[in-house]
Amino acid sequence: MALKIVKGSIDRMFDKNLQDLVRGIRNHKEDEAKYISTCIDEIKQELKQDNIAVKANAVCKLTYLQMLGYDVSWAAFNIVEVMSSSKFTYKRIGYLAASQCFHENTDVIMLTTNQIRKDLSSPNQYDTGVALTGLSCFVTPDLARDLANDIMTLMSHTKPYIRKKAVLIMYKVFLKYPESLRPAFPRLKEKLEDPDPGVQSAAVNVICELARRNPKNYLSLAPLFFKLMTSSTNNWVLIKIIKLFGALTPLEPRLGKKLIEPLTNLIHSTSAMSLLYECVNTVIAGQYSCSVGSVCLRISVVKYLGLLAMSKILKTHPKSVQSHKDLILQCLDDKDESIRLRALDLLYGMVSKKNLMEIVKKLMIHVDKAEGTTYRDELLTKIIDICSQSNYQYITNFEWYISILVELTRLEGTRHGHLIASQMLDVAIRVKAIRAFAVAQMATLLDNAHLLTGNMQRNGICEVLYAAAWICGEFSEHLENPVQTLEAMLRPKVATLPGHIQAVYVQNAAKLFATILKNQEGNTDSTAAQETSQLMIDRLPLFVQSANLEVQERASCILQLVKYIQKLQQKDVEVAEEVSALFAGELNPVAPKAQKKVPVPEGLDLDAWINEPPSESESEDEQPKAIFTKEEPKHSRPRHTEVDEKELARRREARKQEQANNPFYIKASPSSQKVYQETPGVEHIPVVQIDLSVPLKVPGLPMSDQYVKLEEERRQKERAEKKKKEKKKRKEKRSGRGKKHDSGPESEEDITPAHVVDIVTEEMPENALPSDDDDKDPNDPHKVCDIQGNLQDGSQVVVSVIFENKSDSFLKSMEFNVLDSLNSKLQRPEGSGPHDGLTVPFQLPPGVSNEARFVFTVQSIVMPQKLKGTLTFIVKDSSTHEKLDFKLHFTCTSYLITTPCYSDAFAKLLESGDLKSSSVRLEGVNMPFHHLLARICFHHHFSVVERIDSCASMYSRSIQGHHVCLLVKTSGQTVSIDAKCDEPTLLGNVLDEIKQTFSQC
Amino acid sequence: MIKFVLMVNRQGQTRLSRYYHSVELSRRAALEADVVRYCLSRKKDQCSFVEYKDFKVVYRQYAALYIVVGITDSENELSIYELVHNFVEVLDKYFSRVSELDIMFNLDRVHIILDEMIQNGHIVETNKSRILAPLTAIDKMVES
């Protein structure tokens, strides 16, 4: 026996230990697999020995081999043997091996239950500790059930070392054996207040994990956690607690308010980025309005995350982000492109009238510096996006914007020439005051076209010339030196441009020619005019030979025209008037939906058949829109006859009113040289006086920078003036309130635009609005919307819906469905169920819009209706089914039809006594009375019966024949409307809608 | 929750692995190789957080050694990033200037340290002296 022991220890001396194994593997790099297999054979031999030390050594090596990916499950029983050694050093090796190799399906685990129980109750805390650690890795449902009680007792062990391990392992036990949760929970809760921070942290961890699965049950613990949050100093624990609160706040909104203070404190005091990030994330998720601004500043050290967080904040608290403009601009310098692009996205959202110029100026600097065309193109589109967003809302000086656009044309290799061109056209057409300046710039551009043409062919920048040529031609009366421009447009080099641009060149050369003739014929020298004609005749043949059909056709047509003109000129006939008549008339922008605004003329029924309908459908068409046929004949006035002077004048006045109110009609702007009116009102927006010493017309290309300065000066002047006025007022009032903010920061409203901008807004008719824009996800790539309605007939309503595909994918199989209400129902074809959708009879390629009509039956019209609906469609490329929710809003106004009424009939109606009355007062309506009337007529389908000074009577009829009469009176800014109608509910709703119309303006 | 902790060298050899959820042995090797390749391919100035399949990976490089931690979505990446450094500091304190060899030859000790810090996929202890207390006690026991 003694010999055996001696032999065993001698063997051990020759055995490899773990270090030898590691070293050996390193020395046998070439035949590692072979070496390891011999090692495994040795280990198998060692495991057969009785000596526990040898076995432990073998198991230790096996653990290492297991880590390298060798299967050691065959040694499971030996591992259990080593685990049950009484010596801690071996036990530890056994448990480590077990925790690495065992899993739920290892069958020897059953054998360990008693051993583990023994270890758990061992007097040595390290025995218990190692057993707990091991158990946490291989606990099975059986083990959990058998040992739950033992572990629960350990949760109140005297040693914190054991307590914390026991608490943590309880989570695993709960997962494997859920029944244990209920009895263990009170003790777990207790551990949150354990004197030892380690145990606390363990309890927090467990409860956080549990609460993530089912937060509702843990709301009651909130006060406890709240205390912990203010007392704990361990960042890892704090993060867990904050995470837990993040899960709890949605269930208990009051918690959010309470959290603001500790969160803010943490944000300001912590130096740990992780904790800061967690706080910010929770703040954003909870949308607490605490001092988010300072957070961004600090978090932006972790730039990308910070930028991401900021874009979330921007949606809710734009002001606080705007103050970090400089920081975000700095991010544009970052090496990482994804950070730069994120920063750009942010900039888009944070521009204002005040900082637009500055931001764009910085962006322009970046454009110059930027390497790589993709990023530069991205910058370019962003600049244009930023400037043009919401109808150029933030641009106060359009000369500056034009200069920016012109500067952008100097970019080499950009793909976005088309975009720049469309912006130039848009601005020049819509902003009247800018035309002279724009034309001057465009003329320069045309003149220097050769600078661009060098590499224009490859890139899209030549598109700009398209815009330049058109603007110069259309607004040629503003040209300084039209002959020079004409010359530039007819250069032989033009023939190298793409066809569609040449076509515009030719056409606009003709317009220019007309203007030049007009100018020159006034002079005595007729040779100049003839020279111009000669120039045209000389140059045009180049275009006549063009391969492009469009160019050829236009050129040859114009050439013949000019030849004829020359003939006349030689006979000394004045032709200018007639030539310019060719291009007479001003081009005004029209909103795509403007047509909808035009009311259908009385007596015209677009749905009625012009000829006899085909015989088979005759029976179905029994009700041909009764509303118009029922009309009393005396109301339809004969047209084109007996129109006396008075009537004409009245009509002219009405038209003027309508025009004044029509956002699509561009008024002749007043003189553009007025400076700083006394009272800044809508009509008297001061127009900048440009200091001519600043070289605006320098040959070459303009610089936008100067505008930043100019604008600043202008604003300062304005501010100074305002302040003066304010002071005066204050003196007059002599209010004892003392000084308020005198030199406070310039607020948005203080900035008045430099140019009068006639901006076409795409307003919708008031008939059935697609209301509640927030119902639609603005980010939806397949935005199909624009629902408009036309109401007709006593009980039938036709809604025409314009589907516009704003995505890049082809949409098909569209189905339109509306959730019927009791009152309004979508008419579905016979045989289909009440919830079936209607197929939209067309498909939509990208960027295309089309209109479909749907018929609704409406029972009662006295209340406004909102119908919920969905549009489902298939995106062709990905063939995914997509859904778009919308709401159809039937306002009461939309049931009204403009019906003229004579004053005597109106008086009779009022006297009859059948009508119920109601009234409404509008305060602070700041518009001329005729505008007010026009607005009511236009938006609410009324007609004026009579008007005397500041008092007018109006009339309208509903589709079900209710009479609605209004008496509108105005005094100062107050408007009172007395109304009568035979249906009080309808009246109330109509009045509400009128009120709303005026509250919006 | 932490799913696994790996220590890998530049050659892609695993020096330590600890899983807190059961992964089959055969799949472990593939997963380790994949994650390590992913981390090694990234440049120094790139972000230390990577999304990998259904979990996130946080890694940190110390000389030739990478410490890679796999975590679930609910975990705070930055806190794990800081934990890794804490772990290395503890190792540094115990081994006094820890090197890859220390970890290779004292794997069981490194495991004890790791087990003291992370249990069950959760952080238990972050205080250095308290983490090392059991280990020094064990060392004393072995010596005597």
Automatic annotation (TrEMBL), chain A:
Keywords: Acetylation, Coiled coil, Cytoplasm, Golgi apparatus, Membrane, Phosphoprotein, Protein transport, Repeat, Transport. It is found in: Cytoplasm; Golgi apparatus membrane. It is a peripheral membrane protein. One of its GO terms (cellular component) is axon cytoplasm. Residues 766-777 have a biased composition (Acidic residues). GO terms for biological process: anterograde synaptic vesicle transport; Golgi to vacuole transport; neurotransmitter receptor transport, postsynaptic endosome to lysosome; protein targeting to vacuole; synaptic vesicle budding from endosome; synaptic vesicle membrane organization. Residues 606-677, 709-754, 766-789 are annotated as: Disordered. Residues 622-658, 709-723 have a biased composition (Basic and acidic residues). SMART domains: BLVR (SM01354). Residues 643-792 form the AP-3 complex subunit delta domain. Residues 724-740 have a biased composition (Basic residues). InterPro entries: AP3_complex_dsu (IPR017105), AP3D_dom_metazoa (IPR010474), ARM-like (IPR011989), ARM-type_fold (IPR016024), Clathrin/coatomer_adapt-like_N (IPR002553), Mu_AP3 (IPR058898). Part of the AP-3 complex, an adaptor-related complex which is not clathrin-associated. The complex is associated with the Golgi region as well as more peripheral structures. It facilitates the budding of vesicles from the Golgi membrane and may be directly involved in trafficking to lysosomes. Involved in process of CD8+ T-cell and NK cell degranulation. In concert with the BLOC-1 complex, AP-3 is required to target cargos into vesicles assembled at cell bodies for delivery into neurites and nerve terminals. Belongs to the adaptor complexes large subunit family. Adaptor protein complex 3 (AP-3) is a heterotetramer. PANTHER family: AP-3 COMPLEX SUBUNIT DELTA-1, DELTA ADAPTIN-RELATED. This is AP-3 complex subunit delta. The lineage of its organism: Eukaryota, Metazoa, Chordata, Craniata, Vertebrata.
Automatic annotation (TrEMBL), chain B:
Residues 1-141 form the AP complex mu/sigma subunit domain. It is found in: Endomembrane system. One of its GO terms (biological process) is intracellular protein transport. It is a peripheral membrane protein. Its main location: membrane. It comes from the Eukaryota. Keywords: Membrane, Protein transport, Transport. SUPFAM superfamilies: SNARE-like. The keyword NADP does not apply. GO terms for cellular component: cytoplasm; endomembrane system. InterPro entries: AP_complex_ssu (IPR016635), AP_mu_sigma_su (IPR022775), Longin-like_dom_sf (IPR011012). Component of the adaptor protein complex 4 (AP-4). Adaptor protein complexes are vesicle coat components involved both in vesicle formation and cargo selection. They control the vesicular transport of proteins in different trafficking pathways. AP-4 forms a non clathrin-associated coat on vesicles departing the trans-Golgi network (TGN) and may be involved in the targeting of proteins from the trans-Golgi network (TGN) to the endosomal-lysosomal system. Belongs to the adaptor complexes small subunit family. Adaptor protein complex 4 (AP-4) is a heterotetramer composed of two large adaptins (epsilon-type subunit AP4E1 and beta-type subunit AP4B1), a medium adaptin (mu-type subunit AP4M1) and a small adaptin (sigma-type AP4S1). This is AP complex subunit sigma. The lineage of its organism: Eukaryota, Metazoa, Chordata, Craniata, Vertebrata. The gene is AP4S1.
